[in-house]
Amino acid sequence: MTTSDAVARDLPGAIAAQRLEIVFQPQVDLRTGRVAAVEGLSRWTHDRLGPIPPSQFVAVAEATGAIHQLGRFALAECCRYGRAWHDRGRELAVSVNVSPLQLAGAAFFDELERELAGSGIPPADLILEVTEAEQLSDPEALVARLDIVRDWGVTVSIDDFGTGHSSMDRAATLHAGELKLDRSLLARDDRETIAAAVSDAHRIGMRVVAEGVETARQLDLVRAAGCDRAQGYYISRPLPRPELDDWLMRLDVEPV
Ligand code: C2E
Ligand code: CA
Ligand code: CA
After folding, report:
1. Which residue is closest in CA terms to ligand 1's atom 17?
2. Are 149 and 128 in contact (CB under 8 A)?
3. CB neighbours of 5 closer than 8 A, spacing ≥ 6?
4. Per-residue pLDDT tens for 39-52?
5. pLDDT in tens, 146-179
6. Is 190 close to ligand 1, i.e. is its CB under 6 Å away?
7. Is 157 in the pocket of ligand 1 (CB under 6 A)?
8. CA 173 – CA 130 distance, rounded (Å)
9. What is the pTM of this model?
């Protein structure tokens, strides 16, 4: 049996048994220096195979249909913690990755409505990170559903901008409120594309998050380029929730 076969076989049971975990990576507001949001990222340590990278189990989940179960789990965890931070007076939005396959069905939007109501997270504290699907089955229906979600106060974010999977046209079509620059743009020091993306995004009222900030120089670069928020190892790795809480608490003591 290949690793992929074992992942496909064992993932649904692992999700059901709550053996997956969400870790959270901070995003800093470049104007205020405050942590404005955290991105929830799924983690899974397989009993026998050890840690499986999300790039691998998400792809398998998309192929087998388990992505809906994975997506419900990630959304529920992010809403639960988002509500808890809100209750403790933290102004912290939570960003959750949503697969194009989840968006394709109306069920996702019903689940989202239930999750918002059930968890009590303020909709303004939730961000949905979406990526380009090769083919959208019914783009108009999707835009209409996303508009409803936006009316609730949830932000739609276009992930991986600059990879060829996401475009400014798509961001505009989906009435997105946020654009996330793929870390490959920073890695290859593509200032021109970054500057153009920032100016186009700002023109249509979108916020820009730079991802994959690994050095002080890159942080200066994205700030100078006019990005609104930054996320990356230079600021913090993705952290399990208790460690994130400690990290946030240290910031309270020594404001950045
Ligand atoms: P993504 O949404 O683009 O998430 C950002 C990825 O970049 C994460 O990888 C994060 O750990 C990594 N990263 C953050 N800062 C840096 C940095 O400074 N340098 C470098 N080199 N990498 C950085 P991760 O956690 O391995 O996730 C990989 C991908 O798996 C995610 O990419 C996302 O597409 C997918 N994914 C993860 N969790 C979920 C989930 O719950 N649902 C769905 N649908 N997809 C998920
Ligand atoms: Ca993402
Ligand atoms: Ca990304």
Report:
1. 212
2. yes
3. none
4. 999 999 999 999 99
5. 999 999 999 999 999 998 777 888 889 899 999 9
6. no
7. no
8. 13
9. 0.96
pLDDT tens figures, 49-75: 999 999 999 999 999 999 999 999 999
Ligand 1 pocket member 53 (CB < 6 A)? yes
- Pair of tokens at residue 63: 């192929």
Is the distance from CB of 108 to CB of 55 less than 8 angstroms?
no
Q: Please, are residues 25 and 239 in contact by the beta-carbon 8 Å criterion?
A: yes
Pairing status of strand 126-130 against strand 155-161? parallel
Closest C-alpha among 229, 44, 233, 4 to residue 127: 229
